[in-house]
Amino acid sequence: MQKTFVISDHHFGHKQIIDFESRPFHDVDEMTTKMIERWNAVVGKEDKVFHLGDFSFLNREKTRDIVQQLYGSKFLIMGNHDRGRTKKWWLDVGFDEVSEYPLVYGGFYFLSHEPMYMNKNMPYVNIHGHIHGQKYEGNHYINVSVELWDYTPVSFEEIKRMTIPNEEQ
Fold it and tell me: Taking every annotated instance into account, which residue ranges of this chain make up the domain Calcineurin-like phosphoesterase (predicted)?
């Protein structure tokens, strides 16, 4: 059965992010290897992954090499560091679909790179990245930046458990 995952802010090739976000890697090569391993440990070849932006700082060839190693079909919602390249560039390196704008998934979830304003009375959840190790208060926001999820994509089943109230309570 196909599963769906979300993740954000890998920053492949970005040496300074290791210090900026206190990532537990010695260098970008170790970071790349470990993040690919963690992705492939949970994502199957038939699964779908929404990457919510800031994927790679590397050139076309090195980015394509990473994308080809990652399991599943990959949908990129472009982040602030991705927007310097065209949708075509991202498709050419191996993403199956690319969006410059947030999307609604499952009629209930807003998928975006940056957090979106969510009124507390709205029945929606914003799944986002961009703010790395920070979290917004409340149950309207789920930050899927890699730092908060041990550099591993999060299944939508896990997101649902976090966001849909248990009707028996």
Answer: 5-133
